[in-house]
């Protein structure tokens, strides 16, 4: 009896123990890899049609029956719910891009999705993932060199051509935002504010104060400090 009990105890200890919660799905090897690729690429395809001057708007319908029309990648990705791990990474990446830069969310998402699309083909051709990653790192270094060589260096910040270049950048950025109807006004405000930094690049020195009432075109740039205080 003791021997039988010991054998039964050993057999019970060898039984597989599930650490997944009830209803959870488990994917392994090739299935998990394909699922990650498909999920991330689908996110890129979702916002790809909104990219560029001929990008199309998308209609977003929330659970509260609120309808929103936009072609802003950050707004679209914030509004969708995803459960694919790789897709979630792309959504989080777009949020970081929006928080740090304020623009380019669609571009980085589409670029990342296309890199994964190419990576899927390379892995199917039996290339090791580390080899692919190393190639991307080398390509990043070359891209940075190319960007530095193409950068416009202004000898004088009061240069008219330099200001016009900044205005073009600001207009392009505002074209996909809610301010698109007033992009000329706000482009001038943004460029004037940046030029007052005199090349320091310290954007924290620019404070945006919101007040109720009036219209968007009532917004103005003031040099100094604004204090919300009552006299006396």
Task: Provide an overview of this structure.
- Its main location: cytoplasm.
- InterPro entries: Chaperone_TCP-1 (IPR017998), Chaperonin_TCP-1_CS (IPR002194), Cpn60/GroEL/TCP-1 (IPR002423), GROEL-like_equatorial_sf (IPR027413), TCP-1-like_intermed_sf (IPR027410).
- GO terms for molecular function: ATP binding; ATP hydrolysis activity; ATP-dependent protein folding chaperone; unfolded protein binding.
- The protein has 232 residues and is mainly alpha-helical.
- Among the domains are: 100 residues, GroEL-like equatorial domain (GROEL, domain 1, Orthogonal Bundle); 56 residues.
- 54% of the residues lie in helices and 3% in strands.
- The chain is built from 8 helices and 2 strands, in the order ααββαααααα.
- A two-stranded antiparallel sheet has the order 1-2.
- Helix 2 crosses helix 4 and helix 4 packs antiparallel against helix 5.
- It is globular, with a radius of gyration of 26 Å.
- The model has no long low-confidence stretch (mean pLDDT 80).
Count of alpha/pi helices: 8
Derived structural class: mainly alpha
At CATH level 2, the architecture of the domain at 29-128 is Orthogonal Bundle
Percent helix: 40-55%
Order of helices and strands: HHEEHHHHHH
Task: Tell me, briefly, the overall form.
Answer: globular
CATH topology of the domain at 29-128: GROEL, domain 1
Stretches with pLDDT under 50, minimum 5 residues? none
Q: Which strand order does the major sheet show? A: 1-2
Beta-strand content bin: under 5%
> What's the CATH class label of the domain at 29-128?
Mainly Alpha
CATH homologous superfamily name of the domain at 29-128? GroEL-like equatorial domain
Overall pLDDT confidence: 80
Q: List how many beta strands DSSP finds.
A: 2
């Amino acid at each position: 009896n003791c021997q039988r009990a010991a054998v039964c105890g050993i057999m019970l200890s060898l039984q597989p123990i599930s650490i997944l919660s009830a209803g959870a799905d488990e994917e392994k090897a090739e299935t998990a890899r394909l699922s990650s690729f498909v999920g991330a690429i689908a996110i890129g395809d979702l916002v790809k049609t909104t990219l560029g001057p001929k990008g199309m708007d998308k209609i977003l319908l929330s659970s509260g029956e609120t309808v929103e029309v936009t072609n802003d990648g950050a707004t679209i990705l914030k509004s969708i719910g995803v459960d694919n791990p790789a897709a979630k990474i792309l959504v989080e990446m777009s949020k970081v891009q929006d928080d740090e830069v304020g623009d380019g969310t669609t571009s980085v998402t589409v670029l990342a999705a296309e890199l994964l699309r190419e990576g899927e083909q390379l892995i199917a051709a039996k290339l090791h993932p580390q080899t692919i990653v190393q190639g991307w790192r080398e390509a990043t270094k070359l891209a940075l060199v190319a960007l530095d060589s193409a950068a416009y260096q202004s000898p004088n910040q009061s240069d008219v051509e330099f200001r016009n270049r900044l205005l073009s950048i600001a207009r392009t950025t505002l074209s996909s935002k809610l301010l698109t109807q007033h992009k000329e006004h706000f482009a001038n405000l943004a460029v004037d504010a940046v030029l007052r930094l005199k090349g320091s690049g310290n954007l924290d020195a620019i404070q945006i104060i919101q007040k109720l009432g009036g219209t968007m075109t009532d917004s103005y740039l003031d040099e100094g400090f604004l204090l919300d205080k009552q006299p006396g």
